[in-house]
Amino acid sequence: MHLIKLSVGPKDVAALAALQAARLKQDPPLRAWTRMFPKRVEELCNGGSIYWVIGGFVRVRQRILEIREEEWDDQTPCAALVLDPELVLVEARPMKPFQGWRYLKPEEAPADVNNSRPTTRGLEALPPKLRRDLAELCLI
Q1: Which among 29, 53, 83, 89 is least surrounded, fewest beta carbons within 10 Å?
Q2: What is the DSSP string of 4-58?
Q3: From the CB of residue 60, how many other CB atoms can be counted at a distance below 10 Å?
Q4: pLDDT value at position 134?
Q5: Pairing relation of β-strands 49-54 and 2-6?
Q6: How many domains does the chain have?
């Protein structure tokens, strides 16, 4: 079982990676917090991932290592999703906005981008910004 959640703030995968790297350095382990505590903790922590929706598309996932009960600064209880720091690109899939998180069945999850696919010739001739934009869209 997996979760799907909107990434609030970061506008692209690079911004999410930078934000998480700063969080990990400042206050390990890497966690994402949510108000509602999932009921299917065992399933989620046994090979589950959180799939991040960024800019209207499911873009990346991270393995969920643990789910803890924590509190926000105002002592409101919350769930802390302890995440593997590795961001795994997935095949981009459009997703409409929603609040909170949703369960995502494994058979409905987007596939990981296959990094072993053949490289396209001539990519090095493209301007760096265009290469980054195409990579962000999971087109290269």
Answers
A1: 29
A2: EEE--S-SSHHHHHHHHHHHHHHSSSPEEEESSPPS-HHHHHTT-EEEEEETTEE
A3: 25
A4: 79
A5: parallel
A6: 1
CA angle at 89 for the pair 70 and 21, rounded to the nearest 5° = 45
Residue type, 12: D
Q: Does the residue 132 lie in any domain?
A: no
At 105, which amino acid appears? K
Residues 82-121: tens digit of each pLDDT: 999 999 999 989 999 899 999 999 999 999 987 555 555 6
Three-state secondary-structure class, residue 109: coil
Report yes or no: 22 and 59 within 8 Å, Cβ to Cβ: no
The CATH number assigned to the domain holding 32 equals: 2.30.130
Please state, in angstroms and rounded to a whole number, the distance separating the CA atoms of residues 99 and 5: 8
Which structural domain range is residue 63 located in? 2-113
Residue 124 lies in a domain: no
For residue 23, tell me if it sits in a domain: yes
Q: Between 128 and 47, where is the model more confident? A: 47
